[in-house]
Amino acid sequence: MRKLNRRQFTQEASLAFLAGVTVSVSACGGGGGGGYSPTGGGGGTTATPPPAPTGSKTGQISANHGHQAVITAAQLQAGGAVQLDIATAEAGHSHIVDLPAQAVQEIRDGKPVQKDSTTTDAHMHTVTFNAEAPEEPSRY
Predict the structure, then answer these.
(1) What pLDDT is stored for residue 132 in this prediction?
(2) Where does the chain have alpha helices with state H?
(3) Rounded distance, CA 20 to CA 31, Å?
(4) Which residues of the chain, if any, have pLDDT below 50?
(5) pLDDT at 91 (0 to 100)
(6) How far is 129 from 95, CA to CA, in rounded Å?
(7) How does pLDDT run across 111-132, given as a tens digit for each residue?
(8) Rounded to an integer, what distance in angstroms lies between the CA atom of residue 57 and that of residue 75?
(9) pTM for this predicted structure
(10) In this predicted structure, what is the pLDDT of residue 37?
(11) Is the CB of residue 24 less than 8 Å from the CB of residue 45?
């Protein structure tokens, strides 16, 4: 996997646009000079994750490029703190989302909850559970 700095990415994206290639770029948090790979592990595409097992909850991930956040039915039932690793083969790198017990209980009860992931490769993601719920999400 080749890492690109911002200048290299801009040059290659410009050439891709001129060649008629569609380039999707999602806003990743963080600044710095971290590399970005438009293909493979750090991709700028949005992957559709497989459906979560029955009784589990899947979080919506901001600026997603292949991650998946799933709390299993057993974890929801237990109601304790959960540490999710939202890495998948498509993402090619890992982020951790720490959910305290209160957040897990709110997710289980259908309340919206937002939590930021750790920063990896100069970006992070916000994971939202129960996003369709009408009330403002709790932030943890």
Answers:
(1) 87
(2) 6-18, 73-78, 101-108
(3) 29
(4) 20-46
(5) 84
(6) 16
(7) 999 999 999 999 999 999 999 8
(8) 10
(9) 0.63
(10) 35
(11) yes
Spatial separation of the C-alpha atoms in residues 140 and 134, rounded to whole Å: 18
Please tell me the predicted confidence (pLDDT) of residue 135. 86
32-62 burial: b if 16+ Cβ within 10 Å, else e: eebbbbbeeebbbeeeebeebeeeebbbbbb
* Chain-centroid distance, C-alpha 111: 20
Single-letter code of the amino acid located at 69 = A
CA–CA distance, 115 with 137 (Å, rounded to integer): 10
Cα–Cα dist 15/107, whole Å: 44
Task: Quote the tokens at residue 40.
Answer: 């493979």
Q: Give the pLDDT score at 18.
A: 53
d(CA 96, CA 99): 10
- What region does 20 belong to: left with phi over 0, alpha with psi -120 to 50, or beta? left
In this structure, the strands spanning 126-129 and 138-139 are unpaired
Encoded amino acid at 130, one letter: N
Provide the residue type at 88 as one letter.
T
Torsion, CA 73, CA 137, CA 124, CA 66, rounded to 10 = 50
Residue 8: strand pairing partners = none
pLDDT at 134: 84
Q: Is the dihedral of CA 106, 97, 114, 51 positive or negative?
A: negative
